[in-house]
Write a structure and sequence with these properties.
The protein has 224 residues and is α/β, with parallel strands linked by helices. It has a single domain, classed as Alpha-Beta Barrel (TIM Barrel), CATH 3.20.20. 33% of the residues lie in helices and 18% in strands. It contains eight helices and eight strands, in the order βαβαβαβαββαβαβαα. It has an eight-stranded parallel beta sheet. α5 links the parallel β6 and β7. The protein starts with 10 loop residues before the first strand and ends with a helix. It binds D-xylitol-5-phosphate (DX5) and zinc ion.
């Protein structure tokens, strides 16, 4: 059945964490040529999360061949230290964890002052209501639907209700804050998440393990 949509299509951000690291250039070219809106880059320090992903020298070189806006997800302690690095790379949005920032308002203000969109990330156990006094200053909220650190994990169901509650807070206050979801996203779940209020979907394994990632991204854009 033909589906008529009156809203803008969902924003799709493939997560490079699930790419083939032996063929990163090929996978980045695939994303560049696809209908994906952003490229999601996961940065880990082995302290905030029990894993380490891409180091800065590598990110600097990879950024030279990425043509999609970069959506950087910092899973590190003291993320404010790295604002100048990502500012110099020209990233679109910089996401910092609520759980990693003692002075969150200061960090968000610095990110915006550096010309990037400021995004606050919530781990699965952190209630959206804790954002009451920062929401107005935040361009985007990233709801983690898995515990951060690894790709290919199972979606945690209650996080969908957090999206619904956060959307209500945003609408009630007439804000333009976007909601992004990260972890265990696929086509079917993506539809439910957008119904709940999500604007941006991150997907790693689902996209990079597909036989035809370009076609899959096209379907996500059209069908969700
Ligand atoms: C997990 C990362 C995610 C991850 C998502 O800590 O933040 O971006 O790559 O991977 P999937 O979509 O495979 O769950
Ligand atoms: Zn991520």
């Amino acid at each position: 059945m033909q589906k008529f949509k009156f809203t803008m299509s969902v924003t799709i951000a493939p997560s490079l964490l699930s790419a083939n690291f032996l063929r990163l250039e090929d996978d980045i070219t695939m994303v560049n040529q696809s209908d994906a809106d952003w490229l999601h880059l996961d940065v880990m320090d082995g302290v905030f999360v029990p894993n380490i992903s891409l180091g800065f020298p590598m990110i600097q070189q990879l950024a030279q061949i990425m043509t999609k806006p970069l959506d950087v997800h910092l899973m590190v302690v003291e993320p404010q230290k790295f604002i100048p690095f990502f500012q110099a790379l020209g990233v679109r949005s910089l996401s910092v964890h609520y759980e990693a920032c003692t002075h969150l308002h200061r960090v968000v203000t610095e990110i915006k002052g550096a010309g990037m969109k400021a995004c606050v990330v919530l781990n699965p156990h952190t209630p959206v209501e804790l954002l009451t006094d920062i929401l107005e200053d935040t361009d985007m909220v990233l709801i983690m639907s898995v515990n951060p650190g690894f790709g290919g994990q199972k979606f945690i169901p209650h996080t969908q209700d957090k999206i619904r509650r956060l959307k209500e807070m945003i609408v009630a206050r007439n804000l333009k804050t976007l909601i992004e979801v990260d972890g265990g996203v696929n086509l079917e779940r993506g539809k439910l998440l957008v119904e709940a209020g999500a604007d941006v979907l991150v997907a790693g394994n689902f996209i990079f393990n597909a036989d035809n990632p370009i076609e899959l991204i096209r379907r996500m854009k059209q069908e969700i």
